[in-house]
Amino acid sequence: MKRFTLVSCSVLVGAQYGAEWEAWKSRHGRKYASLDEETFRHKVFAQNMINAQEAQAANPFATFGSDEFSDWAEDEERTNLFGAIPEDVDASIPQAKLNMTVQIPSSKDWTGAATTPVKRQKCGSCWANSAIEQIESDFMLQKGAKFILSPQEAVDCNGDKSFRNGCQGGWPDGAYKSGMQLGGFELEADYPDQGKDKKTKQPIDNTCLYKQNKAVVTLEGFQNVGKGSETEMKQHVGSTGPLSVCLLAAWKGYKGGILSGCPSNKGTDHCVQIVGYGTDGGKAYWKVRNSWGPTWGEQGHIRLAFGSNQCNINSHPTSTTAGKILKNGGTVVV
Questions:
Q1: Overall pTM > 0.85
Q2: Is there a catalytic annotation at residue 126?
Q3: What number of other Cβ atoms are within 10 A of residue 53's Cβ?
Q4: DSSP character at residue 15
Q5: Domain limits at 238?
Q6: DSSP code of 182?
Q7: What does 78-103 look like in DSSP terms, one character per residue?
Q8: Do 73 and 91 fall into the same domain?
Q9: Catalytic residue among 123, 126, 157, 262
Q10: What angle do CA 15, 20, 24 make, to 5 degrees?
C-alpha cells in the first residue's frame, strides 16, 4: 500500500535509529523511489523499533529487534501477514476423542518428519496456509505420503459456500470444506500461489481454477482437537501429530526465544501450525510453524510459553482425516 507523508528529516532521518536504519537497508537491499518514500519508511522503521523494545521488556525469555518487515506499516502487515476471520461455530464439526492415559514424550518436534518446508504467504491467506499445512502433515503421518499442496486453491475456491474472502481473510474450516466439496486438492506446482485472488464480476465459482484431473489427494474430514485445553492439545501433538491453530499474533520484531508476554489471550488474527513442544531453561513452550518465510524468527518458527494460553493459542485447534491418494484423472490409488 503506497502511502507517503513528508515529515521533518531532522526528526527522523537525522537522528532516530539513523545508523541502525542504514545498516538495515543495506542488509535487506532496500532502495526507495523518492526521498518522500524513504522518509516515510524511516518513520515506520523507527516506530517498529520502539515497538520491539516494548515487546522485549514484556518478554524476558525472547529476543526482539528488526526483521525483513520492519519498514512495513501496520495496515500493510494486516494485509499481507495475517488474515484470520473466524466463522460461526459449526456444531456439526466433530470433537476428537483423546486418550489422555497414553504416555507422551517430554518433548516432541515434528519438523521435517511430518512437515513440508515453511511457507511464505503472499497476502492475507494465513488461514489457507495453516489448513493446507495440516492436510500435508496428516497425509505424511496417516498415509506415509508427502505432497506440497496448493493454498491458492483454497483462496480462490469456495464451492461449499462457506464464508471467507480470499486474500482478505478466511478460516481453516472453509479451506477443508471447499476441498472436500470440490473432490480434492491440487499440488502447489499445478496451482501456484499468486499472492492475490482471481476475483471477477462473475459468480465466485468462476474464479476457481481447480481441475479434478490434477487433484492428488482427497480429505475425509476434520475435527476440533482439545479446544480450550492446552493439556489436551499437547496430548494430541505428543501422540498423533501437528495441529492447525488460530490465535492473536502479537509477534512484531520477534527474533527468537520463548514469547511469554503476549498482550492478549482473546481474539484471533492469524492461523499457523503447532509442530511440537518442549522445555528450555525450565520453561515449557509450544513450537509453532509460521507462514512468513524461513528467515523469520527461528527458521520460520516461534516458541510460545505453554500453559497460559499465550496469544489465545487454544481457541481453534484442528486436525484432519486423510482421504484417498489420487492419480491423474482423479482415480483412486490408495
A1: yes
A2: yes
A3: 12
A4: T
A5: 85-332
A6: H
A7: HHHH--B-PPPP-TTSPBPPP-TTS-
A8: no
A9: 126
A10: 130
Assigned C-alpha cell, 63:
529476543
**The pLDDT of residue 158:** 82
Placement of cell 525472547 in the chain: 62
Q: Which residue from 177, 173, 176 is spatially nearest to 89, judged by alpha carbons?
A: 173
DSSP 22-54: HHHHHHHT---SSHHHHHHHHHHHHHHHHHHHH
Task: Catalytic residue, from 290, 309, 312, 314: name it.
Answer: 290
Residue 6 domain flag: no
Residue of 270, 271, 309, 311 marked active site: 270
271 annotated active-site: no
In a domain, 42, yes or no: yes
Q: Where are the alpha helices (DSSP H) in 208-257?
A: 230-239
Domain closes at, from 35, 57, 79: 79
Contacts (Cβ under 8 Å, ≥6 apart) of 330: 183, 184, 212, 213, 215
What is the distance between the alpha carbons of residues 275 and 266, in angstroms, rounded to a whole number? 22
Domain count, the chain: 2
Is residue 80 within 8 A of residue 122, CB to CB? The reply is yes
Give me the phi and psi of 24, to 5 degrees please.
-65, -45
Residues 181 and 311 occupy one common structural domain: yes
Say what the pLDDT of residue 159 is: 67
Task: Assess whether 129 carries a catalytic annotation.
Answer: no
Per-residue pLDDT of the chain (334 residues; tens, 9 = 90+): 455 444 444 344 445 688 999 999 999 999 999 999 999 999 999 999 999 999 999 999 999 999 999 999 999 999 999 999 988 777 778 889 899 999 999 999 999 999 999 999 989 999 999 999 999 999 999 999 999 999 999 999 986 666 667 898 999 999 999 999 999 999 999 999 876 655 533 334 447 899 999 999 999 999 999 999 999 999 999 999 999 999 999 999 999 999 999 999 899 999 999 999 999 999 999 999 999 999 999 999 999 999 999 999 999 999 999 999 997 655 565 5
